[in-house]
Structures are given as structure tokens and as C-alpha cells.
# Entry
Amino acid sequence: MSVSLLQEMTEKAMARNIPISVQVDLTYRCNERCVHCYLDHDDHGEMTTAEIKHLLKEMAEAGVFILTLSGGEIFLRKDFFELLEYARRDLQFCVKLKTNALLIREREAARIRDLGVESIQISIYSHRPEVHDAITLVPGSLKRSIDAARFLKSQGLRVIFANVLMTQNMADYPGVRALAAELGIESTLDPTITPMMDGDRGVLSLGVGRDELRQVFRDTSLVGDAEEFCAISTNDSNEDALENLPCSAGHTSCYVSPYGDVFPCVQFPLPTGNVRRQRFIDIWRHSDEMNDVRSIRVKDLSTCTSCTHVSSCSRCPGLAFMEGNMRGPSSQDCERSFARTGVPSANMLAKAKAKPARAAANLVQIRALPTMAGATA
Amino acid sequence: MSRLYMARNPRVAARSLDGEMMIMSGRDSTLFTLNKTATILWQSADGTTPLDEIVKIRICPEFEVEPAEALQDAETLARELASHEILQISEEPIPQPVAGAPR
# Structure
């Protein structure tokens, strides 16, 4: 995709309040059980074929150009190709797919090619079956996903391996990249672990630690010039950054769940409306929540404005929201900035400062115990 | 003189952004934006209306140009769009799939 022209069109879309890119999850059902997945895989009343087609039509009318179909596993929907055909042939979306590809064989690959899909992103966690399959909890899943990638490539399609970096597969990302290169496939690497939809943050323990992240950020095969990549941002760039938008969520992009709920982003679980009750464009334009997200500038962020990393931080407002404040810091991104530069974020410094105070408070209580009546310390 | 017919390539993605047409090539994901004339050609490319008629009905009134000159420019543009696989062109009408029919 031509990046500069897309950027120009995205800027135009933002100026006109047009959601140029939307991810729709067709289902949360899945045929894998990835250990880090944030979804509940039950069907709580997915949108019907007619409801999704209606939504897609509304989205096209609203100006949505890039449509990402994801899940759950999209191929578990029996109407998947009907929906894809409608999105491509009737509505001419630029369609990207996210899948584990377990259900893609030669026939499906040919059909995807015929329908002119822009790209297919496949989750690959390792080049070794014993590691990948231990993450998906489906024996044989790596082989099936790789076979599907080959079928898709043989159709001339653009395939991308998406690898989530975790403690379990930390050592294997070079192997995934090598496998991708061998197959002529692009690859991405993301250390973000998203908390469960019910708010359970236990899954975050699967994320890699600081030392591992530091190692990744100094891998020149990933970041190019490591010195430049890990450099601390200057005061000038920090000042310029204050007027910036935190990210595209709610500005030119949003997310729709299988139940019709609209959120600023797949990783930003702030409900803004439901397309079963409201028109998509009305939610996009008039939802109080969407407009609240839209109003935020970097200068409005608590803690982050005074942070050394304000201009270079990958701060995700959705992760911050899940921590309790969408205008606050996202600890995962603080960790990343620290691992990258060796300089703690303002949030980390504030927490460190707060800790001794809490410890002192505890000590006071402990000290008080012997004076309690009947206490036998 | 032979007539030129145009049809939209079904493999491209397209959307009008506030009147400006965005097209993404199905061949290599290259993104294009179409100018006003190219947008008219794209919107009129139904496979059955010949280019000279499109020029006469849509382009001449819009731009106040001579039909012969406009046709020459439009044909050059149509061939350029075809070279990027945005349009299909032919000297025969190009049959289009019927909506809802099996493809």
C-alpha cells in the first residue's frame, strides 16, 4: 500500500470526521485456544448475516474504505464467503483478513484470491510445532497454518505472519521471521498482551520481561539502527508532541464486535453504541464516548505530559483505559519505553515514589500492633 | 472508427472520500486517487456504454470542451487506468456479472 498517499487520505478523512478504517469481528468463536487470548469464545448472540450486511452497507456509506474482518476465527462463520463477497463485489471495500488459517485449503485460497482480498494476516507464534501448538492448544495447528499460508501465497496473495511475543516463544521470533522470509511472507512482532475482556489481568503474566524486551529492541534485524531506535527523545520533539492525537482510535478508525457493539478500537473496550439499535454513522459522529476519546490531545494526558518519552511513546489509550483512565499512562507502554531507552517513564517514577509511602503506612500499622490490648508480640 | 468500452476491475477497492475517489489496485495494493475526469470514467465504466457516449453525456457538459479533443484525452486516460488494472478496456462490450448470481 502506498504509505504517503494513504497517510494523506487518512488526514483528509480525519479532517472530515470519516472512519476510513474499521475492524469488524464476525465471531468470538474459535477453533484454537491460545493461552494469551483475551476473548470469551462462547456465542452470546452474534449478528446475523442480514445484520452484518446492513452494517457493511452503512459503513460503506459512511466512507469506510479499509475493512478488517477478524474474530475469533472468521472461517467458523458459515456465511463467511457470502459476507466477504458482499464486502468486496458489492461494496468495494479494501478487505484485510485476520485468521489462524486452519480452515483454509486450496479451494478457499482460490476463492479469497478471486474476491481480491488485500492481505491475510495469520497468527504464527513459533516455527517449532511444540511451541506454537502449546500456545494454540491445538496439536498440528502450526502445520495447518503454514500449509494455508503456502496455498494463499501460491495464489499470489499478500500474507503476513503476526507473532505475539510471550515468555513461551521469546526465543523463537528469529525462527518465525526466517520461516516467513523463506515463504516470501511479511511478518510482524508485537509484545502487547491484552487483558481479558472481563477485566482479568492475569494473562499479562505471559508477557516478556524488561530484559527480554531490551534484547528485542536492540536486535538490529528488527529495528535497524538500534542506537537511533533506542535514543531518548529531545525536549523540542516533546513540546511539538503535546498537540498530537494519542492514536487513530475514534479519529479515523473504530471496532465493531460480533454483537454489534462499537468501540474506539479492538483494544479499547469503551462502549460507544450498538449498531442493532443505532445507525453506525450516528454512533461515529454523535456518541458522547466517541467524542470524549476524540477530544483528547497528548497535552491532556495526566502524568504522560511530563514524561521524557512523551513524543516517542507507543502509549495505547485502550490499555490505559483498561488500567482505569484513558487519559492516564499505559504501564505496558511505559515498560517498553524503559526497555528501549533505559530511562524510566514519569509513571514509573511516580509509582516508585508512591511505594515507600505505602510501605511506611504498612510499617506504622505493624508498629502499632504491640501496643494493642492483649498483644503478645 | 472502433468504440472503446470500459468496465471497473472487480479486484480493486474503491471509495469516494468527500468526492475524491480512492482506488486500491488489486494487483499490488498501490493506492491511487482519481481526478475529476478519471472519477467520471470510473463511475461510468459499466461495460456497455461506449467511451464516446460517456464523453458526450458526462465529460463535455462538465468541462465545456470539444468532443473530439475530450474523447482523445479520455481515451488516453482510460488506457492509463487500464495499465494500472483499475479499468478493463475492450473494443467490445464487457459483460458484467448479474448481482446475486453465482460467480
Q: What stands out?
A: The mean pLDDT of chain B is 88. Helices of chain B lie at 36-44, 51-63, 67-83.
